[in-house]
Amino acid sequence: MSERPQVLLSCAMSVDGYIDDASPERLRLSSPADFDRVDGVRAACDAILVGAGTVRRDDPKLLIRSETRRKRRVERGLPADLTKVTVTAGGDLDPDARFFTTGESPKLVYAPPSAVPALAERLGDRAEVVGAGDPVDFAVMLADLASRGVRRLMVEGGGEIHTRFLTAGLADELQLVVAPFFIGDPSAPRFAGPGVFPQSPGRPMRLAEATRIGDLVLLRYLLNGNGRG
């Protein structure tokens, strides 16, 4: 078992780098064809991670949608769904969120040790709460996931989570879908926030694929030069 899983970041954004607008309704940046592509990527992973803010705002299920893909996983001896993972700083998570109530696979919550007792009591048997530093140390979290057999982790945001993985040098692949419009609202969330990124003009990412999906484009970058991804 490697010291950490292979980490794949997946995101759809506008041409100007936003992953949503500032309205209460979730903005759909993708298309049915791309949603199906993402479902196929999920089916090739062991676990899927979103931040606690995404759990609260979007209430995602994070399940594999295709019954065919689910059956193929079971035929290979894998669970039909991925292990779900989230990260929280303060423990503000609703046990009735669909993250916890859908799917049969394990749900893991990584939190500061001080937040673990109350959060574990609130979530009960719906999730396992793991102390991983204050703030949560992503390298510690990944090592724990590796010890649980997670070899490939898909990260679906939000922006703060993507930024943490990127600035820490803990991402191996970035799958970025660009939608053919602008948001232009500085109060809307962006794909990545400020930070010191290893991927600089002197050390750029490697473009492994550029694929047209209707009017969208998928850009698949490899971030590390160590053969991962």
Would you mind describing this structure in some detail?
The chain has 229 residues and is α/β, with parallel strands linked by helices. It is 26% helix and 24% strand. It is built from seven helices and nine strands; from the N terminus they run E-H-E-H-H-E-H-E-H-E-H-E-H-E-E-E. It has helices at residues 32-43, 52-58, 67-75, 98-101, 116-123, 138-147, 159-167, and strands at 6-14, 47-51, 83-87, 107-111, 128-131, 152-155, 173-179, 206-213, 216-222. Strands 5-4-3-2-6-1-7-9-8 form a nine-stranded mixed beta sheet. 36% of the residues are buried. The model has no long low-confidence stretch (mean pLDDT 95).
Gist of the model:
With 229 residues, this protein is an alpha/beta fold. 26% of the residues lie in helices and 24% in strands. Keywords: NADP, Oxidoreductase.
